[in-house]
Amino acid sequence: MIEELNQLVGQTAPEAPLNKLNTGIRQKRIGILGGGQLGRMLLQAAVNYPIETFVMENDPTCPSAHLCHHFTRGDITNFDEVYNFGRGLDALTIEIESVNEEALFKLESEGVKIYPNPAALRIIKNKILQKQFYKENAIPTSDFIITNSLEELKQASDFLPAVHKIGMGGYDGRGVQVMKTSEDLQLGFDSPSVLEKMVAIEKEIAVIVAVSATGETTLYPPVDMVFDPRLNLLEYQVSPADLPEKTLWKIEAIALKVVKDLKSPGIFAVELFVDKPGNVWVNETAPRVHNSGHHTIEANYSSQFDMLWRIMLGYPLGSTEHILPAAIVNLLGAEGHKGEACYEGLYDILQLENVFVHIYGKKETKPGRKMGHITILSKEKQELIHQANRIKQTVKVVSQ
Amino acid sequence: MIEELNQLVGQTAPEAPLNKLNTGIRQKRIGILGGGQLGRMLLQAAVNYPIETFVMENDPTCPSAHLCHHFTRGDITNFDEVYNFGRGLDALTIEIESVNEEALFKLESEGVKIYPNPAALRIIKNKILQKQFYKENAIPTSDFIITNSLEELKQASDFLPAVHKIGMGGYDGRGVQVMKTSEDLQLGFDSPSVLEKMVAIEKEIAVIVAVSATGETTLYPPVDMVFDPRLNLLEYQVSPADLPEKTLWKIEAIALKVVKDLKSPGIFAVELFVDKPGNVWVNETAPRVHNSGHHTIEANYSSQFDMLWRIMLGYPLGSTEHILPAAIVNLLGAEGHKGEACYEGLYDILQLENVFVHIYGKKETKPGRKMGHITILSKEKQELIHQANRIKQTVKVVSQ
Fold this sequence. Notes:
Two copies of one chain form a homodimer. Chain A is α+β, with helices and mostly antiparallel strands. Chain A has helices at 2-8, 37-46, 79-86, 101-109, 118-125, 127-136, 150-153, 245-262, 296-299, 304-313, 346-349, 381-394, and strands spanning 28-33, 51-57, 70-73, 91-94, 113-115, 144-147, 162-166, 176-179, 193-197, 201-211, 217-219, 223-227, 234-239, 266-275, 280-286, 326-332, 339-344, 355-359, 364-365, 370-377, 396-399. Chain A folds into three domains: 27-115, Rossmann fold; 143-197, Dna Ligase, domain 1, CATH 3.30.1490; 201-399, D-amino Acid Aminotransferase, Chain A, domain 1 (2-Layer Sandwich). Helix content of chain A is 26%, strand content 29%. The longest helix of chain A has 18 residues, at 245-262. Mean pLDDT of chain A is 92; it is low at 1-22.
């Protein structure tokens, strides 16, 4: 790669460890739309590089506001506010899909680099377009029908069991309804939505894929998302996932195809189902850093956050290799607690030597809110699972 | 420890993984005096915990200013400014010794926790008091005499070869003068200083020690500071240092004694000389996070920065264990370059899979200025040294 580039610029530099192309790593101006925990961890990684950072978010007490050079209070869904925020920046990224994409298209046409590009974002942020994209590109995904109203949905009882997902605006479990019998149909959404045939899931896997501005790609080792079978709640995530080699190859090939067909640089999280016979189905894709990649901060040479900066700065892609295997547990606001956050049991967990605590700095907890996560590193898978369960039993985010 | 504490509060909690003492990890307000790269990396680590951060520094474009909740432009050597900054905080730390210590004594008397405490800081920041402290506490250190003026220094030709160090205000190599012959005496300092007998150094070692508010201590593995024998410039640092077991024990015992005798919580970097016969001498101590501990960000479970927050927040001390051995190379401003910084050769280095780049975000480079560092992780010591040399030859911080 370097040799090719050197040839392009007419340099052979036989004696040189110095690549002359690179005589210019200088500070760049990069913005983030949204100021939650993903922005926070991005800004934490930005500390390592020469970057002038910009954040736009409505809430000036959000987790990212104090960690950037320039905070703009603004509405990320508003055309003018996004456009004015993005003008003059070298690059712009998102930490949530619900941003004004028209402004991104305009900024892109004026030379601002957008990660992911707005065309890919448009496909992904609408669950209907996303499903159609999989189908058009022959990417394996569960069967689906589109429902534009509750009326239409009620005709679809033959299609059950299925999952009803609202086209636009769903997030973190909102806008998703499991439908087992025809009585459940009335719980569906009365707006354009997609009804997805239920897959007999054996495993849920997530893969983070990085794509450079010049189209180079690299994959992180797949992550096993372990759910509580009774509550259908994510228990913990383990990386690398325990998979037969053939299934692993299939997953990697499919994840790579999703991202290549999206034709956009950036970081993508592809979530997949594996069924008992070993078939692989794409569930959905996020065009950004993702919860399923948080362990990469400590567990991999280049974290997903580091990697996105490398992509936006035009640096070489980093290494996705594991330093050590890892598990993570999300810290969610406890049921029945709303108010100023307090972290019960955390003192105990901070005594474990192979555990890394990440609190997102949200002042207020509420039931189910993502308040932090804890990463465990260990060569031993049993140790990862043991500690993950211990953390789940010990730490509780309550109101004071 | 937990059991003892549980007994103290009258709880036995037979079934509990939950330590009730800990039902209260809440946000704390903590300040840093100084806004350079040490503050920057401290704030990067602070992102993981519930902390409201405060920084005071004269330069609003300093490496830390944009990474805290509250930046105060102010003079850290001024009594009123330091005192007003510290009032109402839960805790306060420093990232440089030259702060107003009277203000710290007053704040301490009013209940603000200071890391390190001002009594320890007073000893360390004056190289004369520091040497006397070692002598009084029977800590092995090279012989020395005190010189109050150039006139007194000129009487000391019998004491050469020696190193003349100014009592107050030296920093990063400034205020230090090597004296081999009596002609060198005129290069000395005309103010209270210490003249230290030169030791026949075989190795220079640094040890980071952590001390909790309740007096618990833990040591990081010693670091080998490798100097260029011709230029007497730090080439790179390797951790853990390659030492005979007996020397290692001696170093650890001495470093621990230094810190225990200082009677202060905080992070301390003890720099030591080892001579050919294996004698160990304390060179000097820094009462704060230190350049010789930067590799701990990636190489150890709890970094020196993470550890200082744990100490200030009253959390358990973290693990100082290595995840992998490491080396670091400092990136210093190149000779003959002054102006807006540009990082030559960095692109090449970012392609190495086991390398972590840290740029400090200083707009201006000047000769010898600390502009960043690069950490290398590897199981193989030869690989560490090979990559360290490669980085030294490849990366150059120049002006644009």
